[in-house]
Amino acid sequence: MLNNTRHTPCSLCYRIKSINDSIYPPVLRSYVAESEEDDVAQIFLDWLENDVKDIFSNYFQKKMIYGEEEEIKSIASDDCHICGGGGFYRLYEDKG
User: Fold this and answer.
1) From CA 26, how far away is CA 20, in angstroms rounded?
2) pLDDT for residue 96
């Protein structure tokens, strides 16, 4: 029979590392609870969520660059450019 005990986190540490430090420098976050009331698990989730939002907002917001010809082809196409499946724009057609 398993002993089901509960552990309350009292500290945290995590590191975010990019494949290229010049693009996104390494980040090390650590925290030690100052009292029993500190919700270390929630602090970890809040910090991690903020770090992920920061990464996406600063490093993954590249706009698609294409000319008028590519835009016309994209609008006129009935196939998905990723999987080749059809019916992409038909999902939004008025069925009335």
Assistant:
1) 9
2) 47
In this structure, what is the dihedral angle of CA atoms 22, 30, 46, 9, given to the nearest 10 degrees?
A: 150
What span, in angstroms and rounded, lies between the C-alpha atoms of 54 and 61? 11
Residue ranges of the chain whose pLDDT lies below 70: 1-2, 4-5, 61-64, 80-96
In three-state secondary structure terms, 72 is: helix
Q: How far apart are CA 56 and CA 10, in angstroms?
A: 29
Please report where in the chains the tokens 């706009």 appear, as a residue.
63
Answer for the pair 88, 79: CB distance below 8 angstroms, yes or no: yes
Task: Locate 68 and state its tokens.
Answer: 């008028």
Those residues whose C-beta lies under 8 Å from the C-beta of residue 51, and which sit 6 or more positions away, are 16, 27, 29
